[in-house]
Design goal:
The protein is α/β, with parallel strands linked by helices and 378 residues long. It has helices at 10-26, 38-43, 59-64, 66-83, 94-107, 128-134, 144-151, 162-173, 201-215, 233-240, 252-258, 268-275, 289-299, 307-312, 327-339, 341-358, 363-376; strands at residues 2-7, 31-36, 46-50, 87-91, 112-115, 137-140, 157-158, 192-196, 222-227, 246-249, 259-264, 280-284, 318-321. Strand 8, helix 9 and strand 9 form a beta-alpha-beta unit. The protein is globular, with a radius of gyration of 21 Å.
Length: 378
């Protein structure tokens, strides 16, 4: 069968590439055409556009590149019609993908499937109307999304979470911790505090300085930053200065495997820390913190920002967000995680509940099997 996939950023490229590989195992004759990235290209098929030509973040960059964005949308729509795939598979990236879904539904008879739901349960819930109208099947990777969509009378398929697969694969290959993560930098052999400050420059700028100041208050521990792909060491060094904090790149799982605790900016990294059973503090600074806290309370539809707490349906990890994220608050919470054994155990017990809710590895395989099953009507 012919599969047309659209992924608009690095994480989508990663997940779509795994899905494509799983589809090829189920359907050896699979033919792919896609908007995506290098990881998808490595699986095979024809890349129409690289996601680097699509991904504009923030109001001003989007405004400056409107002509390019509209041209890419037009090209994508024309290409789908010309190639006429058996299915269009959208991967996250809702601003672009929901427009494509609307076009395909209105102008063709090609089914539209969504893999990795837009986070409309947190923001822009009104988009449920577009999804119910334009998306034929949705394959979810977060268990609480099932209840959300059922509430709107739109059944979805929960296939498991890809992060479970990735952590399980690493642990299978590296059953025992690798040698001390920072030994090549001649650091003292101290317990590690992992600092995961996000993947974008603005996130790092907003979160890392306070993380460093808080972690540096524990001289018996070694703070180590997990460097994000695409961010230069020089950028991190502007925040590290003369502190004893070190940076590693491409070894986040190795770092988490050995960390005693972690300071984590909300995102998939919170799930990764939980699956490695690393006690964590979620730290998310925003400018004009009190105003953001007010908006969060009155406009955002969920109680939590971390995936750990959203999956658990309760507070498992402490979230320090907006005006509550201060060096003093981070340091206090970190101290409890390092030295308060019952408190630490309570969080680790919560992680077991999160792991149970996420389910077993095999998310991409189950998604591929589900896609083919629905396509064949079996």
């Amino acid at each position: 069968m012919k599969y047309y996939l659209i992924a608009g950023e690095a994480s989508g490229d990663l997940h779509a590439s795994h899905l494509m590989a799983a589809l090829k195992r189920e359907d050896p004759q699979a033919d792919f055409r896609f908007f995506g990235g290098d990881m998808m290209a490595a699986v095979g098929g024809t890349m129409v556009k690289h996601y680097r030509e699509l991904a504009y973040m923030g109001f001003v960059p989007v405004l400056l590149h409107l002509r390019t964005i509209f041209a890419n949308m037009k090209r994508c729509k024309e290409d789908i019609v010309a190639w006429h795939p058996d299915v269009v598979i959208l991967v996250d990236y809702p601003g672009f993908n929901l427009d494509i879904a609307r076009f395909v539904h209105a102008r063709t008879r090609i089914p539209v499937y969504y893999y990795i739901s837009p986070k409309i349960w947190a923001w822009k819930e009104y988009r449920i109307k577009n999804i119910k109208r334009d998306v034929d099947e949705l394959f979810s990777i977060l268990p609480f999304e099932v209840d959300f969509y059922n509430k709107h009378h739109y059944p979805v398929h929960y296939v498991g979470n890809p992060t479970v697969d990735e952590v399980a694969a690493f642990q299978s290959e590296h059953g025992k911790p690798l040698p001390y993560v920072a030994e090549s930098k001649n650091l003292p052999d101290k317990p590690v505090i992992a600092l995961l400050a996000g993947s974008r420059k603005q996130e790092i700028k907003d979160n890392l300085p306070d993380m460093i100041r808080a972690a540096s208050g524990f001289p018996s521990h070694q703070p180590v930053i997990a460097g994000a792909p695409g961010i230069s060491p020089e950028y991190y060094n502007t925040f590290v200065g003369n502190s004893n904090v070190q940076i590693i790149f491409g070894q986040t799982y190795r770092l988490l495997q050995q960390a005693n605790a972690a300071l984590v900016t909300s995102g998939t990294a919170t799930l990764e820390a939980a699956l490695f059973r690393v006690p964590q503090v979620v730290c998310y600074h925003t400018p004009i913190g009190r105003a953001i806290s007010f908006l969060r309370k009155h406009l955002i539809k969920v109680k939590y920002i971390s995936l750990v707490n959203l999956v658990a349906g309760r507070e498992v990890v402490k979230e320090l967000v907006a005006h509550t994220m201060t060096v003093e608050n981070i340091r206090e919470e970190l101290g409890r995680l390092l030295h308060d054994t019952p408190y630490r155990k309570q969080m680790l017990d919560g992680y077991e509940d999160v792991a149970r809710r996420l389910g077993e590895p095999g998310a991409h395989a189950r998604a591929a099997q589900g896609i083919i099953k629905v396509l064949k009507g079996t």
